[in-house]
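Exam revision sheet. Question 4 asks you to relate a sequence to its structure. Input first:
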Amino acid sequence: MAQNVYPTSDVTNEWASGGFADIDEGATPNDSDFAYSIDKPTDDIFEVHLGDPGDPAIGTGHIIRYHWATVDGGVLSGDGTAVTQTYNLYQGTTLISTGTGNTHTTNNATWQTASFTLSTAEADNITDYTDLRLRVVASGGGGSPADRRGAAVSWAELETPDASSGQTVTPGPVTFSSSVPAPTEIHLVTDVVAAIVLVTAVAGTTAVIHDVDPVTFATNVPVATPSLGTTLKPPPVTFASGVPAVTETHVITRNATPVGLVSSVPVARASAIVTPGPVTFSSTNILGLWCLMYLQQ
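Answer key, structure tokens:
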């Protein structure tokens, strides 16, 4: 974004006719009204105050544009003795622009569009954007009365970057809404042979340990098959627009500590055969005890 300002008042006007109101048309120039100097001017000054742009806090993108021509008694003319007209940007009485391209030494009977851009160093010298001025100085155009000419300007503007374009903004703390999903993590057993599932056996039989599918821990938690030494990296967690994703990496290692399981959590794949211990009956089961003693005899 850019901001454009236009003449708002006369500061110094030594020209023959016109003033800031003749060159302040805004974004659409109107060359039908204009300000002009006398023929054969002698460093005659026409200076206008420009509108007040906000400080863009950056030294680039400062452009002055204008329409210029030469006149003979206030009428556009391209012949006669050459007139020199110089355009510069001032802050108060301090010259800001010092570059080339803002001086014209030829006569033109048609309106010429011209511009010059401040260097970064020149723009950085501006300390008060409320006191910027465009100064035009006309001289020359002498000789015989028939050859004398004057300077003319019909439109001018100053463009600068938007007032917020060069500022550094420090955001405050990030607040997450309730609709943002909570991060998830992958947790795996540290040793794939440390966890088993038993199928309860009837007395006198052998309990069989079954293979089970890869571990699933809880709703919305990713599923993975554990393997020692494997590095797992879950997908990035997306929080909200503009908030960087967060990832977390877990490395599977061997752990001598048995893994605690709960009945609702399936466990890692494993295979083995386990023989259950002695069957213990309660003292009230008398008939079963006599049967057992009979069978043993």
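Marking note for examiners. The two ends are 102 Å apart (CA to CA).
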